[in-house]
Amino acid sequence: NQTGCGQPKISGRIVGGGDAPRSRWPWQVSIQLNGHHHCGGSLISSQWVVSAAHCFDFSSLVSSYRVNLGEYQLSYPSPCRVSSLVSQIIIHPHYNGTRSAADIALMQLTDPVQYIDDIRPICWPGSSDSFPDNLTCWVTGSSTLIPPPLPVSLPPPKTLQEVQVQLIDTAACNALYNIDPDPKIGRDPVKPNMICAGDAKGHKDSCKGDSGGPLTCDSNGTWFLLGIVSWGDGCGQPNRPGVYIRTVPYGEWIWGFWQSEA
C-alpha cells in the first residue's frame, strides 16, 4: 500500500515559508465540516486519510464531513479538486481528550481516489526509518499566518501555507514547556508518543485550523509523515513549540485497516 508514496511532482530545495507552490504537498487535504474548512489531514492511501482525533465532534454525523483533495486555495476551488464523502471515521481507542496521546483518527473515503499531480499519498514511516532529532521538516496548513505578536486568519484566497520547522525531542521540548509552566498544562506535558517542532523563539508554528495536518520530513528524496498537528500553548509563542503525534508508534494500528482494504 506504500508504493509510489511521498513523491510530489515538484521537488528540489525549499526555502523559507509562506504560500506553498501548487502540487508541492499533494497529500494535504482539507477536512470540511458542514461545508467549511475544519481541519487538515493527510492522504496515506487511495481510500484513507489520517488526521487528529480532536478534530471530530462526537455529536456530528459522519455525513457532516467531506474530504477535499487537491485543494490549493480554499477560496477558489481548484479544477483538480476532488470532494469525497466519508464512509467511516475511526478514532484511536486510547484517545481521551485534549493534549492526550493517541490524538489520531482515520477517515475512510467512500470511493478510492485516482492519483494525479495534485493528489498523491504520503509515506508512513516504519520503525526502521531513522530521522535525527534536530531534523528540519515542514508543516503545512490553510488556517493562519503567524507574524508576531498574534496569529491572524489567512486572507483570501487562503492559499496553502508551508513553514520550515526543526524537530525537538521530547525531553528538550518538556524543558521549554517547564519554563514558567501553564497551570492548565502542567509540567512535562509532552509524552513519549509526541514530538515537537518549531524553535524556542516561536514564530514558526502550526495553529488552530491546521489541526490534524501533516508534519512531513524528507529522507533521500521521499517524504514521510512524521507527525500529526495535535496541540500547543497559543501559536508561535516563545518556549512553546507545536506538539505533534508521532506516527511511527501507530503504524500497526493503521496497517490493520490498510490490510482490510486490500
From TrEMBL:
GO biological process, one term: proteolysis
Pfam families in the record: Trypsin
Residue stretches making up the Peptidase S1 domain: 14-254
PROSITE patterns: TRYPSIN_DOM, TRYPSIN_HIS, TRYPSIN_SER
GO function terms (MF aspect): serine-type endopeptidase activity
Keyword set includes Acetylation: no
InterPro entries: Peptidase_S1_PA, Peptidase_S1_PA_chymotrypsin, Peptidase_S1A, Trypsin_dom, TRYPSIN_HIS, TRYPSIN_SER
Keywords on record: Disulfide bond, Glycoprotein, Hydrolase, Protease, Serine protease, Signal
Key word Hydrolase present: yes
PANTHER family according to UniProt: CHYMOTRYPSIN-LIKE PROTEASE CTRL-1-RELATED (PTHR24253:SF144), TRANSMEMBRANE PROTEASE SERINE (PTHR24253)
Protein name, entry field: Peptidase S1 domain-containing protein
Protein source organism: Pelusios castaneus (West African mud turtle)
